[in-house]
Every structure is written in structure tokens, then in C-alpha cells.
Amino acid sequence: MAANSGRFFSLLTLTVALFFATTTTVAEIRFKEIRSDDRSTIPFDEFGFTHNGRLDLNVSQISLSNPNPHIRTNPDKVGFFLCTRESWIHVVDQLRDGEIACPIDSDVVKQLFAFNQLNGTDRINTSFKVTDSNQFSLVFTNCVPFLRVSMNVQSAMYNLDAKSGHRDYLSAGKTILPSIYFVFFLIYATIICVWLFILYNKRLSVFHIHFFMLAVVTLKALNLLCETEDKSFIKRTGSAHGWDILFYIFSFLKGITLFTLIVLIGTGWSFLKPYLQDREKKVLMIVIPLQVVANVAQVAIDESGPYGHDLYTWKQVFLLVDVICCCAVLFPIVWSIKNLREAAKTDGKAAVNLMKLTLFRQYYVIVICYIYFTRVVVYALETITSYQYQWTSVVASEFVTLGFYVFTGYNFRPEVHNPYFALDDEEEEAAAEALKLEDEFEL
Hints:
12 helices; alpha+beta
């Protein structure tokens, strides 16, 4: 009874994993080694199939061992099956009500292979047709108490094109991602050309920060190009062929430069002052290592698949680090306003700088909205959107990011009369006078 209870709670744990598994991971050919594992359920991968879906399953070096000689090994209770998230919840209900003794016996799952079909061999090499359009998870179940299983599992999930018959290793909701990323790459390439034209024509009013902006946009474009090639190769072959490495490199550089740019703009570096205070430097020294950790976590999440080892831990690390980075870049802005407000009471020049920073408030609001949307709203879209439309969260995130880049470039473009950069003499006097009146009113 205790063993059955333990297996039941293990099934409940898998249900939670199925529910909370991120849908951002794209499927590909995966290989996993299982060694002396006695878990009742082991999820492997998740994929959105069309009506022309296929699953190639290659299991080798299968070994079964039971340290309890009094329990008979029943191989028909050990095997692989496919199930949707909804059907898995129904399976758990059936187990709880005693209708079935093992998930592989349920009528709501697609049984693929039970180990009683091995016929004395230690390997499985077979292909299955999936004609039901839905998102399925490949799951291994072991309903024999204390039975330990060792095996090497290679799975390949893909859809066949109805006309050409070519394999598509991207999930049904992700198959158009290469085209989406390439369109956004072309948009950013156009922005780079426009920005270079602006820098050349306004070269007398160009600051160092404008070249830094150019670097950020360039890295974003290269990141999109690598992601296009990464998804294209996965779509055709099931493997990224090294493009994922370049993608991670440019993602890392893009993340660091973007956070650094927000800090530099928020503190007024280059166009308000040519230096950073010690506290602002410390923020950058904190943000950059945290971005390293965040990118390591992202690599671990992407490469391990939706049910990888320690996936939940890596997700928590990534979320925590990302939140810390987002909060940290806002601190220098607050410090700068506070310090300038205090200095402005006695320093007319500081009063002008305070007015300049006051003009940044709109930008600060946009930064917060950008962070909130890309971290919270996009995740919500991934969770609630049907598997066929998983691409919509990517489009939403890229459009918001594009809007943020355009807004930043437009408001901080090199311009002699740009209010973010300069105030004329009359505005300087008005700023100082306004602060004096404010102090008198407070008194």
C-alpha cells in the first residue's frame, strides 16, 4: 500500500511538471541516458503534432534489475506512451479511483511499446504515426515496485509536410519562428542603416552613448540572425549544428549591453556627465556577473528540454537573477535624481541638470513597462496560449522590444535642440527660478 501511495504521489509530481513546463523549448532529436532508475514515471520530451506527426524511438542497452526477489517482474507494466496534459490529469483520476493500476493501461493515452515485446532483445527501434493534432509528451512508466531500469533513449519528434514530405522538427506552434526572426532581423538591419545615417549627418552633436546604442542594436540584429539559423537547422535536421553556440554568445552580449545602456542613460553618462559615481559602477559590476549566471541558466534550460534534470531549479535561478538585474538598473536613476535634487537647492547648474533628469521620467516609465511586459506578460501568453499559437508570444515580445529600442533611439537621438541633451540660457534661468519658488513654497 505504501509503495502504491508513493507511486501515486510521484504521478502527481509529474502532473505538476507537465502543467508548469515551459512551452518555449523547441523539440529536436534528443538523447538521454537512464541508469538504475526506479522512478515510476520519467517524462522525456514534449511536441506539438499535426495530423502528419511522427515519433522515431530508439532505445538501446535495456537492462532490468529488481533487488527484491519476491516481486515478479511484469514487463507489460513497463514501457513508453504518449499523452496530452489533459489526458494525464484524467490518468491521475483513474489511478486515484482504482480504475487502472498503471498509466500504460489507460484508454486515454497512446501506448507505444511495452517491454514484454522485447522478445529477448535489449533494444527498441521503431517509428510511430501520430494522426491526432495535439501537443503530446513522451513518457516512460515503470509500475513494478523496486524495479531498476537502465537504458539509452533517443527520440525524434517531427511533422511531415503534406506536399513535399519533408520533416519539420519544430513543434506545430513554432514552425514559423525562423521566418519571424528573419523578418525582425531585417527590421533591425534597416534601423542600423538609419542610425548610421543619423550619426553621420548629426556628427557635431554625437556623444559616446550614441555609438553604444549602435552596438546594442547591432548585437540584437546578430542575435536574431543566429536565432534564425538556429531554428532553421533544427526545423530541417533536428540539430542546431553549432548555431546555438553563436546564438547564446550574442544573447549574452546583447543582455549585458542592454542593461548597461539603461544604466548609462539613466545616470546621464556622456551627455550629462562624462563619469559614473562609485555606486553606479558597483551596479554595473553586479549586473554583469548576474547576466553571466542568467545566460548559463538559460543555456541549461534550453538544452535540457522541457523535462531536463534540475530544470525547475535552473528556472528559479534564471527568474531570480533576471528580477535582480531589472531592479538594479533602476537604482542609479533614483540615486541621480535624489542627489541632484539636494544639490539643486544651492547650485543653479545642478538645477538645470535636475530639469534634464526630470525629462527622463517618461523614459523610466517605459523601461518599467518594457521589463514588466517581457518578463510577466510574455510568460503569461506562453502559459495560456494554445500550442498551435505559441509563436504569438515571440511576436509580442519582439514587437515590444522593437518599440523600446525605437523609443530610446528617437528620444535620445543626436540633436542640437533635443531637450534631453541641452537647455538654452532662458531655460536654465527658468529652471533655477522654479526651484527657488518651490523651496520658498515649502518653507
